Amino acid sequence: MITTLIRSIKIDNFLRISQWNANGLQSHTEEIQLFLNQNCIDIFLTSETHFTNKNYFCIPKYKLYYTNHPDGTAHGGTATLTQETIENNELLK
Fold first, then answer.
1. Does residue 76 contact residue 67 with C-beta atoms inside 8 Å?
2. pLDDT digits (tens, 9 = 90+) for 4-53
3. Residue ranges with strand state E in the chain
4. What's the rounded Cα separation, in Å, for the pair 53 and 61?
């Protein structure tokens, strides 16, 4: 179950951040959505997303930032889900 794999920290009673090594994020969408909602997670950091340019991933009320592995195949990769209520911007490369 996902709750045994995810670590969460609470900072100053205002911000909840969670980190998880997904080993394939797409197949865990419902579990992640449930975890985020039950634990009021503000920012969700993920490694090993295994995304390619063909993936579509969306969690309502969260903005997704991600990087794929440079060779374009389904391994590696990172993602950050940030609640839409938190003001944030992507830095251009």
1. no
2. 344 555 555 678 999 988 888 878 889 999 999 999 999 999 888 888 77
3. 7-11, 15-21, 43-47, 62-67, 78-83
4. 22
Q: Are 36 and 44 in contact (CB under 8 A)?
A: yes
The single-letter DSSP state of residue 51 is: -
Strand order in the sheet with 15-21: 7-11, 15-21, 43-47, 78-83, 62-67
Structure tokens at 51: 């995304």
Type of residue found at 27: S
What is the Cα–Cα distance from 90 to 5, expressed in whole angstroms? 27
